[in-house]
Amino acid sequence: MLNTAESLRVEKEAKDVWKECLSLIKENVPNITYNTWFLPIKPSDFLGNTLKVFVPNNFFIEWIEQHYNTLIKNTVAQVLGHEGKLLYVILEEKEHEAEPEKNTLPDRKPVITEAAEPQKEFESCLITKYTFDNFIKGEGNQLARAAAYAVGDSPGSTSFNPLFIYGGVGLGKTHLIHAIGNKILERAPEKRVIYISSDAFTVEFVEAIQSNTVNDFSSFYKSMDALIIDDIQFLVGKEKTQDLFFHIFNTLHQSGKQIILSSDRPPKDLKGLSDRLVSRFLWGLQTDIQPPDLETRTAILKNKSESYGINLSREIVEYIAHNITSNIRELEGCLVKLLANASLTSRDIDFELVKKTVREVSTNKQVNISIELITKVVCEYFELEENKLREKNRRKEVVLARQIAMYLAKQLTKSSLKTIGLHFGGRDHSTVIHAQTSVEEAAKTDFKMKEMLDSIKSKIELSVA
Ligand code: ADP
Ligand code: MG
Question: Which residue in 95, 213, 109, 233 sits closest to 166, CA to CA?
Answer without folding.
Answer: 233
